[in-house]
Amino acid sequence: MSRDDIPPYLNISPDRAAELLGPPADTPGFAAVAEACRRGRQDLASRGLDETGARRLRLFSTWEITRYLIPVAPAHFRRVLRQNPDLPQGQSESEGGAKWFTLDEVLRLRAHFGAEGSKAKNYLPYRPKGLPAKIVAVANFKGGVGKTSTCAHLAMSAALDGYRVLVIDLDSQGSMTSIFGGQIEDEWQTVFPLLARHYATTLRADNQRRLDRGEPPLPFDDTLTEALKLKAPDLIRKTHWPNIDLIGAQLNLYWSEFQIPVWRMQSRGWRLWDALTDVLAEDGVLDAYDLVFLDTPPALGYLTINGLAAADILLVPFGASFLEFDSTGRFFDMLHATFASIEEGENIAARALGREELHFEWDAVRAVMTRFDAGQQAEMAGLIQAHMGQVLSPHRQDFTALIGQAGEQVNGIYEADYRDFNRETYARGRATFDATYAAFKTLLYGIWRREETARTAAAE
């Protein structure tokens, strides 16, 4: 056996190991590593920027539009453009070359076909009138399960489908914010002031009752005073997607996890789990958008509880392995313990006062299998499906070469130019995310139809 064949855990020299070790680490060393990562992150992110330093969404070709976005034959698509010169005509990179369109132009074309095209086809996405936006939370307390990636690609899919989308990043790591090019300076540009405003409103009412009883009010600090001045539209930012807006996150948002329990101790009547739902409804967000996607932290803290309580639809991504299945089961167990505890605590008082009891409810909860390898995980996936039943979405999100390549280029799958890939690789990689969205869209349509039917029945 040669020296190269010796297993790495044998014959290691302590002296050589000491030479390779380097000096001890200290607290300033963390700052140096963070700064190195910041520079690297800026370098990588800058590769997706235009000459002004802003993110810019790529163009979409006639082939891509007619195959994926608008259900018309290419020849008919080109004929409609010739007959309607006022419609976007696209741009060619060479004389007689393929036409390319911005997503704004694609949305205008979709609207035209929706108004003038065949009545047998659905050019526009289904959305019942008079119903608020659906809030979708993507959550799991295990990291690395594809949570942020799944949330981002569902938001992009919905945007390509023609929906108005708001993405709210509740994770102080800010990965979703980076995907959409957000530059967030501090916690006052995150959801923090919205949560603070909700608490401030409760505290102000509590203090008035204290004054009426002749008791001194609780302190009302500058943070709460400033929060009362802000509304959700003040925090919403445009992204490089014309129909995706963002409330971003950054590291200081994590401070909420320490501040919220302090507020809760000061005002036991504050329904913190209603904070996000109430402010989004009060500020008109649920009327301005069709879908609101919440990317939650990989922990069941106060921000995650707010997101889960606000959600109409809960999606839980995880991989097809024993450890991830086991962890996801524990996540559901913790969800039960957390929300059952909230219900129990609130309903003791509700029953004593003769008020309506609190009962959390979601339109649908689905686990989504991500990074699936059919060659190695089919048996495990089948076993998991047998145990989880309908809760596990029947579609399994495959891991393909396109996913890895798109990540290296700092792009989502739908932001990647298919000309940068083998056409077959692109189609296969896109297909798994298209199928993930199709499963979600089926869920969404079923929920909206159920509500629409119930509303019609109630009106009769």
Automatic annotation (TrEMBL):
Domain AAA: from-to ranges: 133-323
InterPro entries named among the record's database cross-references: AAA_dom, DNA_Partitioning_ATPase, P-loop_NTPase
Superkingdom of the organism of origin: Bacteria
Pfam families per UniProt: AAA_31
SUPFAM superfamilies in the record: P-loop containing nucleoside triphosphate hydrolases
Protein name in UniProt: AAA family ATPase
Origin species: Rhodovulum visakhapatnamense
Species lineage: Bacteria, Pseudomonadati, Pseudomonadota, Alphaproteobacteria, Rhodobacterales
